[in-house]
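Known limitations

Structure tokens in this collection are predictions and should be treated as such. Users comparing against experimental data should check residue numbering before alignment. To illustrate the layout, the record for Amidase domain-containing protein is reproduced below. The input appears on top and the generated tokens appear beneath it.
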Amino acid sequence: MASHAANLWVLLGLGLAGIFLMTKRLKKTIKADFGAFIQKLELLPPPQPAPPKAPHPLTGLNFAVSDVFDIEGYVTGFGHPDWLRTHEPSTRTSPVVLALVEGGATCIGKTVVDELAYSIHGENKHYSTPTNPAAPARIPGGSSSGAAVAVAADFVDFSLGIDTLGGIRVPAAFCGVIGFRPSYGVISNTGIIPVSSSLDTVGLFAKDPSTLRRVGLVLLQLPFSVQRNPKQILLADDCFELLKIPKDRISQVVTNSTEKHFGRQVLKHENLEKYFSSKVPSLKEFYSQKINGDSKISSLTLLANVAQILQRYEFKCTHGEWIHSEKPVLDSAISAQINETLDMTDKEIEICKLVRTEMRLAVNNLLKDDGILVIPTTAYPPPKLGSKEIFSDDYQNRSFSLLSIASISGCCQVTLPLGYHDKCPVSVSFIARHGGDRFLLDTVQTVYSSLQEHADTVAKSKLSPNAVKQEHSAEAVKEKGNQAYKDKQWQKAIGFYTEAIKLSDNNATYYSNRAAAYLELGSFLQAETDCTKAISLDKKNVKAYLRRGTAREMLGYYKEAIEDFSYALVLEPTNKRAALSADRLRKVFQ
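Generated tokens:
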């Protein structure tokens, strides 16, 4: 009995000791500010203008900046104590920071970045890794880790960081906040320590789309313009194949939200690997110069290689002398990349620059002024702290294949949170053409609430694997129908669309597309029937109204045809076909 009691006391003592050690460890790990800040300070906005002038646009907002932005009187630390030790305080404040303060916002501090702002992981052994509020046992992502954490933990309304190869987008994805990488060159990099001058872009984090847009418009200094809806939303199917979570967890949310706001007809599918292979010919030249091995290496992987080589080359050109003279203690992974021998000929550098030029042209031509490209932000959920997964070739290849698209093309990208999967944050990214920043911010403002609603629904739904498989099969068959239609094989196209309808009979696009093929064959009754079904499934399907209007005109139902064309014009006021058809019929029959 005494022995049993003694054992109980031993076990109780061990339990209490374990609780004490765990509590001590947690207190050490999770600081009051989640380890986000490296320095607290205060930059106050100017007084409000006297009425009737409008108040400052950012009045009432506070923000933080990553420790790569100069602030007068403070040394910009660049994520490393040796840099802090060897540099003088800044003599002026970065124009970007000044613009925000003058716009009415209050800056309250500087936030932690990865060592020399080089990595995308968010770990910094010198200042400790900021705690990810969305998943404390996992990395926050970098390089602008502290800025993302400050927003995720509600310490600030928004924050500034720098995005070279994902420095804004990765921490936004991992911490469950909105991250915005603007078009390259539209915001001044003056007063910011460069990482890679041809890739660096000032970016920002926000908790909601209204704040994002409010701050974004001040930073971008854009004139007023009428808000436009996207006419095409392209899902990059091959990019979704890179995901390490079920791709439907993201793609289905985007599909549902798009249908709700713009109609299913704006949804398109794209294979970026094939597109970039044909539209960015310098990638092949880069491959022949630098890459040895598998001749089937994908264009996305080549893009990732170009981006990483450019970053490393430009970083060494800018900071190599300081690293050589000061010999700072660096994380082994960062040190290996920075110190790796990189013999780049002038010709190879020119090829990389040519890839950038061709990529921007390719993405701009793909999206035009009214398109949004949808890709996963990251392939992996946030890895666990201390995990070696982040150093694996697979992690690196998948991550940079996605991140290099905007980095190399210079196009604007927004990362949007979509809830959780297996207790880890999930996100999606929207990309618009270079210079399409306002259009992108407007689109995000329109769809954000719907995306959150559908993310919650999809996360809770229990769609059977067989149902998901059938939807994928239906989409594949529809694409075959589209190809047959392009080849003017109308009957063959009808067969494929019919097969798609059998697999998924609640998809308006399948009926509308089959109606288009029926119109080509002169089967106007069948076309009208299919369009009516499509409209019952999707009341914003402009193409279905146009095709039904055409079918009804051919059948002699002129009044009904005018109504269809007119309603298509209501849905899409700039649609010339609808306007011309409605006017023509009114003149003839009224």
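For this record: Residues 1-28 have pLDDT under 50 and may be disordered. The two ends are 105 Å apart (CA to CA). Please report discrepancies through the issue tracker.
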